[in-house]
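Morning. Coffee machine broken again, so started the prediction first thing and wrote up yesterday's gels while waiting. Chain of 105 residues, entered below exactly as on the submission form.
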Amino acid sequence: MSTTRIDQLRQFLDGSPSDPFLNHALALEFIKEGDDQTAEKHFRANLDKSPEYVATYYHLGKLLERDSRSEDAMAMYERGMVVAKAAGDGHTYNELQGAYEELAY
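Came back before lunch.
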């Protein structure tokens, strides 16, 4: 069950509270559990602490889409594209752009 993974990730985060990968992984586990509200809190905390962690923009955008918040999702994708471009991460930029265009058109 995912609860064990959630507990493990929380323990790891206790030792490394600023690790963006661990916080992102925890958010993804909450999505698997169907708890989008808690997942969103963790994604947003990740953006506050580590705005350069580009994967968060895509997954938070998808969560917002599922919650029928298309405008918020598009804004998240746009923010992520700016960060991905600045980081020279063309792969993530293209994923974010594709998600954005899917909503926009």
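Residues 32 and 46 are 18 Å apart (CA to CA). Going to sketch it on the whiteboard this afternoon.
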